């Protein structure tokens, strides 16, 4: 199957220095979306991509998104591009982002963050190398290698590259919804390369993400902060109430105590259970990542299920509480506890809100406190799960086997990538998360890197995926 791939792979190898140079040029543009002063660099990065795509023969549009929320600052444009419009071919829509997290050498980088540094062992350090400039350029490189090798590009490629991902994707959701049945109308499936392998050795395909409902519970009483030497024992204290309310939410083993949550969780099917067995993940890796052995479960499967397919509740902090070192004897007048629930199929956002509000209200009522309590949502995002049996995944699985010589793990992630569900809803098509980098790349931290092997084999993988997409029977 897909015999053209040998020629394509050889071409990618022959051009690997050129592709690394292209990544070097991209990393050199400090497109930090969260810093207003860097905005011109973010825009420059969008133009860089547009120019590269135009040179490759793609039709490109730079779509303005208006002003950044609550500011007078122009948002960087979304790069929309199309390569090929052959009615006989399938059309794949790919997404990536060209902005990056902030980075300063003083933060603890061993190298200049915006100067791609390739070590002899193949590690390529630079901000954005793995998140997400490497994967974005992967699509461009795949196009170029096909041209140079004289191999027909197997699909029509639609591209959507944004410049605000690391700062909330301001304006993108509206654009995707708007274009779902216009610019993206002929997309047969969607592929996003903006996540990571579970470990360092084995590639994976990701078919699910948890959602997140974030809450505040606010308790107030006295008109101002008090001194415990004067008022201790005379007033009911908001902090005492809050601690007791927060303690009622979840137990030491992470079991959520709110009625109506577990009831919403989809049961585990036999088929799903089978997906966990071979996954390259060990409790040792987890202990290392945690920096402790304080895990809730002792085995891999329960741990992965708890991270991917069951909800979890975390208490994050208390606003208004005394948190500095020392022994200040303040009684805070108002405290706001923050907690969130990572949500999974088939939990509903609104139904979950109602369960949370009811539980918190009852927990507070039980205290018979004269203080005042309010519980409210800060923000919510829905979970996502795709069918790993869709041809989109089958194609990616075959491509992975061809390039890496192994069956990929089918993974979910405990976190959220909100754009995934936006694309699914706007296009009505299957969405695949196809990562290029590995778990040690340090996407948001200092010394971010992409391994040369992951980059070059990743370019092969993206191209091979498109060839297998073209061959998969339409179901
Ligand atoms: Zn990213």
Q: How many domains, in number, for the residues?
A: 2
Instruction: Give the beta-strand count.
Output: 18
Instruction: Please identify the top-level CATH class of the largest domain.
Output: Alpha Beta
Q: How confident is the prediction overall: mean pLDDT? A: 96
- Kindly report the name of the CATH homologous superfamily of the largest domain: Zn peptidases
The proportion of residues in beta strands is 15-25%
What's the N-to-C terminus distance? 19 Å
Helix coverage percent: 25-40%
Ligand kinds: zinc ion
The CATH architecture assignment of the largest domain turns out to be 3-Layer(aba) Sandwich
- Biggest sheet, strands in spatial order? 1-2-6-3-7-17
| Main sheet summary | 6 strands, mixed
Q: And the CATH topology of the largest domain?
A: Aminopeptidase
Given as residue ranges, the uncertain stretches (5+ residues, pLDDT < 50) are none
Derived structural class? alpha+beta
Separate helix tally: 14
Q: Which geometry do the CA atoms define?
A: globular
The value of Rg in angstroms is 25 Å
